[in-house]
Write a structure and sequence with these properties.
alpha/beta, flavoprotein
Length: 324
């Protein structure tokens, strides 16, 4: 039977941003509720070795890290609900969110931490080899390919930046692009073309990520390619594949209710997590189109909780003043 839950702070999303916001808000006595969404734990749940999250000398597993964040949030008093927000009204307070289960949440403040997801090509082998030679984040996983050969697929700023980053780690980087020119900024292209260990394959379509199944688990061994003009087929042998065709923030639910940029990222006040709606805050990849790291998401989650606490304290003081 559907229930109505009332909370001072509703956190939508359960990645590093959402759980960090929950930890700080719970410790501030706000008794936050977290609606975890379709992918509790966020993108880290599909990440294997994590070596760049501070505090761990050895590599840790992404799902384990998110499980620990959830337990920490619950330990300090946050309530995690495994449901999905399907509609929300941010036009007035208390804000009202309706979930897939039929449950309704009424909240005095909201933290949006629904994250973003990498766009994928949808080709054979891509999904199956995710975390085993296929990645969408060079900053996250490039370290594992030091001195090896890698491919980057794409032609915009994301692809060019990934290729430049990897060129400082990998032995050789091949940028595979389906057109005859890049869409990235000219300065980025100049830097890329100046790299002696970078090759660009023009007019080339990636049709499949090839697997090496000789070991304990299959790993990527290369790409099956097709020339866009001649249809000639070839294979490219690489140790790692980085898909860099952009990210899509999970913000469809909030369209028309909070300010967003042209790509759908929620706009926040510089140096803040405040959105265009007082009492609504955005943290993590949902408002970060640049860094998209677990540690930066956690940092903005902390900011959102602290700002929500100040907002609610000011609202309480105003209510008391009116009552007096």
């Amino acid at each position: 039977m559907a229930e109505t839950h009332r909370t001072r702070l509703l956190i939508i999303g359960a990645g590093p941003a959402g759980y960090t916001a929950a930890i700080y808000a719970a410790r501030a006595g706000l008794a936050p509720m977290v609606v975890a969404g379709m992918q509790p734990g966020g993108q880290l749940t599909i990440t294997t070795d994590v070596e760049n999250y501070p505090g761990f000398a050895e590599a840790i597993q992404g799902p384990w890290l998110m499980d620990q964040m959830q337990k920490q949030a619950e330990h300090v008093g946050a309530k995690v609900m495994f449901d999905l927000v399907t509609a929300i009204d941010l036009s007035r307070r208390p804000f009202r969110a309706t979930c897939d289960s039929g449950d309704v949440f009424e909240a005095e403040a909201v933290v949006i931490a629904t994250g973003a997801q990498a766009k994928w090509l949808g080709i054979p082998g891509e999904k199956e080899l995710g975390g085993f030679g296929v990645s969408a984040c060079a900053t996250c996983d490039g370290f594992f390919y030091r001195g090896k050969d890698v491919a980057v697929i794409g032609g915009g700023n994301s692809a060019t930046e990934e290729a430049l980053y990897l060129s400082n780690l990998a032995r050789h980087v091949t940028l595979v692009h389906r057109r005859d020119s890049l869409r990235s900024e000219k300065i980025l292209q100049q830097r890329l073309f100046a790299k002696p260990n970078v090759t660009v394959l023009w007019d080339t379509i990636t049709e499949e990520v090839l697997a090496d199944a000789s070991g304990r688990v299959p790993v990527a061994r290369g790409l099956a390619l097709r020339h866009a003009r001649t249809s000639e087929r070839s294979e490219l042998k690489v140790d790692g594949v980085f898909v860099a065709i952009g990210h899509a923030p999970a913000t469809a639910l909030f369209q028309g209710q909070v300010g967003m940029d042209a790509e759908g990222y929620i706009v926040t006040v510089p140096g803040s997590t405040r959105t265009s709606v007082p009492g609504v805050f955005a943290a993590g990849d949902v408002q970060d189109r640049i860094y998209r790291q677990a540690v930066t998401a956690a940092g903005t989650g902390c900011m959102a909780a602290l700002e929500a606490e100040k907002f609610l304290a000011a609202a309480d003081a105003e209510t008391e003043q009116v009552a007096a």
